[in-house]
Amino acid sequence: MFILNKYWKESLLSSLFCILSVIGYGQETKWYDVLEAKALEGRVKAVETADGYARLPLNLKGEVREPVWNLGQDGAGVYLEFKTSAKSFVVRYQVSKGLNMPHMPTTGVSGLDLYSKASDSKSWEWIYGKYNFKDTISYTYEDYGQYPNNIYRLYLPLYNAVKWMEIGVSANEKLEFHHADLKPIIVYGTSIAQGACASRPGLGWTNWLGRDFDQEVINLAFSGNGRLEQPILDLIKQEDAAVFILDCIPNLSVSGEDGERKLTGLIDNAVSTIRAVHPKTPIVIAAHSSSEVPAVLNLKSNADYQNRSRVAEKAVKALQKNGDKNLYWLSEKEIGLDNNSTVDYAHPNDYGMEKIAKAYSKLLKRILK
């Protein structure tokens, strides 16, 4: 009997301890509305609070095709930075689309990703969160120490649209949002640049690239719809950017009688649109990253990707020859994907994302010095 009473008391005390731990020993939680606080980074200046969590401003809805608009609601590349004295915090939010895709996990499509950097360091460290994917998704971050002077960077989902988001800390702790004030790196691209098929948001190559630079990286990539279209070009030319990256070749075919001419015309128009406002700002145009991958034997796809890249490279070299000294070409060989780099015919896995990010980082460090 004594043993049973002792076991019952110990179990009760253990349960009470767990409950108190979850609720912070009775402390109230202070919730920060991310949108209301104007905390979002990685978006063009034309996007306002009234546009919600989208990457495109509402006034573009009638100007772009419906798929572009819908994909522009996804949080790819959008993030927030903050400082906090809290030893733990919770992020809760809702999304408007399906949680995952056949070739991409829930953590990448709909999840969050947290990194932290000390004030005297250039290296970002990762903090995993305990996630719960229900109608309201939650990520709990704890057991990472207490670093009130660190910058914390939280990436939003790559392929889902956030409806609302709040960060909760104990009422006696502080949380202050942080904003960068440097010329951004603008990326206009396809599903690969949007982040397919990274296992978590921080491993999408544009986010990976952003941790190598002080500038924010703005992701304007639209899965299957990165086509060098005028409304998006007109949007990005309004930005006083450090560099413009045009990574649209995977969505631009050269098949058909006028295929080569059309692709060349799209590249010429994209460069001239940006040059009309930014005559000397660096522009980088990239080959299809899967143009020439050793040990991948899908001959028809390989030939298609290689043809696109060769036409694009020829167009870029012609513009360079005509005097554009701030136009750069990033080749598939510099990217260096291999047969372990992709999930399917074109989309990189985490290993492939790292290769793409490193290739861009090497080039941009030379350009931006």
From TrEMBL:
Database matches in InterPro entries: GxDLY, SGNH_hydro, SGNH_hydro_sf
Domain SGNH hydrolase-type esterase, first and last residues per copy: 183-365
Annotated SGNH hydrolase-type esterase N-terminal domain residues: 30-174
GO MF, one example: hydrolase activity, acting on ester bonds
Gene3D superfamilies: Galactose-binding domain-like, SGNH hydrolase
One Pfam match: GxDLY
Protein name: Uncharacterized protein
Protein source organism: Sphingobacterium cellulitidis
High-level lineage: Bacteria, Pseudomonadati, Bacteroidota, Sphingobacteriia, Sphingobacteriales
